[in-house]
């Protein structure tokens, strides 16, 4: 029962993470995209970025994003904007959230013996 709950939560977490480029494309006026195709390409980008042994796959992630999504986004400026938005939401927002979570001191739980 616990395994099913954890699996469902993880599925939702990954679905939200992998659908982010789809909504970024929609916000930039790119409407001729298939959500399954965009999710598949984002999975591919994450796999390529994991090949680079540097934090966040910096460089490799951006390059693979620009190569893969250039077929959907016509202009270079929109492609750069989409890449920046994608990187901010998927990478830097997580780092900032982790920093805030680390700075918040949890209340100590006192147990009686």
From TrEMBL:
Q: How does it sit in the membrane?
A: Multi-pass membrane protein
- Name the major location: membrane
List the GO biological process terms: lipid metabolic process; response to antibiotic
- UniProt catalytic activity: L-lysyl-tRNA(Lys) + a 1,2-diacyl-sn-glycero-3-phospho-(1'-sn-glycerol) = a 1,2-diacyl-sn-glycero-3-phospho-1'-(3'-O-L-lysyl)-sn-glycerol + tRNA(Lys)
State the EC number(s). 2.3.2.3
Q: Which InterPro entries match?
A: L-PG_synthase/AglD (IPR022791)
Record flagged with keyword Transport: no
Q: Which UniProt keywords apply?
A: Antibiotic resistance, Cell membrane, Lipid metabolism, Membrane, Transferase, Transmembrane, Transmembrane helix
Name of a matching Pfam family? LPG_synthase_TM
Q: What does this protein do?
A: Catalyzes the transfer of a lysyl group from L-lysyl-tRNA(Lys) to membrane-bound phosphatidylglycerol (PG), which produces lysylphosphatidylglycerol (LPG), a major component of the bacterial membrane with a positive net charge. LPG synthesis contributes to bacterial virulence as it is involved in the resistance mechanism against cationic antimicrobial peptides (CAMP) produces by the host's immune system (defensins, cathelicidins) and by the competing microorganisms.
**Which family does the record assign?**
Belongs to the LPG synthase family.
Q: What is this protein called?
A: Phosphatidylglycerol lysyltransferase
Q: Origin organism of this chain?
A: Ligilactobacillus salivarius
Q: Which gene encodes it?
A: mprF
């Amino acid at each position: 029962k616990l395994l099913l709950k954890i699996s469902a939560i993880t599925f939702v977490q990954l679905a939200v993470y992998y659908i982010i480029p789809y909504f970024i494309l929609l916000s930039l006026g790119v409407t001729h995209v298939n959500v399954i195709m965009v999710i598949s390409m984002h999975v591919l980008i994450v796999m390529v970025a994991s090949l680079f042994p540097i934090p966040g796959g910096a460089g490799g992630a951006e390059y693979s994003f620009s190569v893969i999504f250039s077929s959907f986004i016509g202009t270079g400026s929109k492609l750069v904007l989409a890449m920046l938005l994608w990187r901010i939401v998927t990478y830097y927002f997580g780092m900032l959230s982790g920093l805030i979570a680390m700075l918040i001191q949890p209340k100590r739980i006192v147990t009686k013996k």
